[in-house]
Amino acid sequence: MNHAELTRLYDFTNRVVAITGGAGALGSEMACALIGCGAHVAILDRVAELPQQFVERIENEKTSRSGRLVFQQTDVLDRASLIHAQKSIETQLGQVDILINAAGGNHPNATTGAYGKPGEPADLRFFDLAEDGLRRTMDLNFLGTVFPCQVFGRGMAERGEGIILNISSMNALRPLTRIPAYSAGKAAVSNFTQWLAVYLAMNYSPRIRVNALAPGFFITAQSRFLALDPATGELSARGRTVVAHTPMGRYGAPDELIGTMFWLLSPASAFVTGTIVPVDGGFSAFSGV
Predict the structure, then answer these.
(1) Are 106 and 222 in contact (CB under 8 A)?
(2) Catalytic residues
(3) Which of 44, 192, 225, 273 suits a disulfide with 209, CB 3.0-4.6 Å?
(4) CB count, 10 Å around CB of 180?
């Protein structure tokens, strides 16, 4: 394979990409990379408007080959909101070729104390986790992936082609302490990714591929309260434990997901579907000894 052929594999010019949770740390990094490679990107997020820092970065990095960016305020747990977003995107950019489900996260009310023992008022035991926090976390991660796949996947099924990339987590492979609902929700995302890949390929078209990224540890808005000490900004005891169990000895940077993302979205992975790819600095390979 020569340079020109490799370049064509990763050419996303005029491809339309919808990214749920696209205003977050990981989703926005994916959006910037895809726009820079010519894709037209629609950000779907529940925020009222995109962070100014993100918009300025897109403007500053634009070239003559850059794609367009549109924003649609969307609730991934509201099917009507998703349908409205789909119609708006099709009007502005055209039919969606690629769906990235980056919406997700944990909630403090679904998080136990360090050892599940009673302590400070916020130091919850598993037995005391509130129903609201558990449901919100499970629904956001699992149904917040399923519903967009239903809305945007329908068009892919009708056309006989398309790509879906879900965002799972290391928690899906190895549940972590303190976050039972998040771990279970991401495990559901991995299982659903495999199920949907088989369903769409066998019932509609093998040109519809569904895969997932399983990031290791990245500091995001949702994980910051566990990873960092709010008083000092340094790694918390839990954050230091994460680093100690990551062979590369650090947290990941959002842009370190981009290479794997491009591969899974490109024709270079044309025979890959139903797989969950870890990007974790070796965390999943380490026994702790």
Answers:
(1) yes
(2) 182
(3) 273
(4) 19
